[in-house]
Each structure stands twice: as structure tokens, then as C-alpha cells.
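ingest -> validate -> predict -> emit
validate: passed (alphabet ok, no gaps, 193 aa)
predict: started
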Amino acid sequence: MQKIILALVLGSTIAAAPVFSAQAEEAHVAPVTDYVTGKVKPWLSDPVVISAIKAQNAANAKLGEADILALDKKWRAEVDGSDHATIDGVLNNALSKFLLEKKEKSDGTITEIFVMDAKGLNVGQSDVTSDYWQGDEAKFKKSFGAGKEALFVDEVEKDESSQTLQSQASVTISDESGAPIGAVTVGINIDSL
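emit:
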């Protein structure tokens, strides 16, 4: 009888563990969503954001998959190399300066920001990303790929560089007509919410 009770208790504890874990995992979604909706979305329609995405969409309109992969490979090589021409071109543009200012004014809540064009290529960023093409990742597919008004909040992960718990929130960016033109990903320091 004791073995049966022990098995039932252990079984119910094990069965309940994933539910608790899923609830704990999801606890960050509401505060991150609230922060992004209240503090990030208002500046996504700024002319510096919209004009930079539109210009890059026009410049990259004819890029095929092979071109995108070659650009991404070049970026990745620059991250680890001494030549940073492509990275510097993005980091020094007006949009990147705008994003860095938004990050700095967040009092540590925003850990990184990067804006992507309609193909998922970086247009501007507050910090260097490990890759140039985000188009194959959930952050792009579940924001821009999901259409207008989409907001995707990813899992909480420990950011090794800042030693903080962060979640990335990604939002579709639309132009003045309401047409989706790109997306933004914002790293949010969970401890500062």
C-alpha cells in the first residue's frame, strides 16, 4: 500500500513539474509585452526608422538566397576578423545611432536593439550582432513573417556578455500606409522590469 501511495505521489509530482515550469517560463511574456507596447512601439514609426528600412528594401529588392547567404557569411567573418567594413557601415548609420540612443535611455532595460528589412537583413543596430541575416530565425518569422501588428516574445535566456536574464521581443514594423516593411528585435533585461 505504501509503495502505491509513494508511486502516486511521485507520479503526480513529476506530472505537475512541467506545468509549473511552463507557467514560470511564461511569466515574463506579459511584462515584456507591456514594456514593448508602451516604450518601444511608439518610436517604431519615427522617420529615421521607416526611411532606413524603405531604403534598404529598395537596395536589396533583387537579392536572392545565395546573395543573402554570402552577405551573412561576410558579416560573420568580420565579427571574428580585423576588417569590419560591412559591420561599421551598419553601426555608423543614422538608424544605428538612433537605436543606441534608445538603448541608453532605457536605464538598462534594453540590452540590444536591431532592425531588419523585409528580407531579414540588419538595417541598424545598437550593438554588433553575431550574424547579418535574421530571416531564418524565429524572431523574424514570428514577427515580420506573421504580418502586421505581430509581436513575438521569446524565451528567457542568460546573456553571457551582460550576465543578465533577457528575453528578445520582436515586432513587425509597418510604414505609414500600414504595410509591413521590416521588423525590430529588442533584448529586454527581465530583472529590470
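Helices lie at 2-26, 29-40, 47-59, 65-80, 85-91, 94-104, 138-141.
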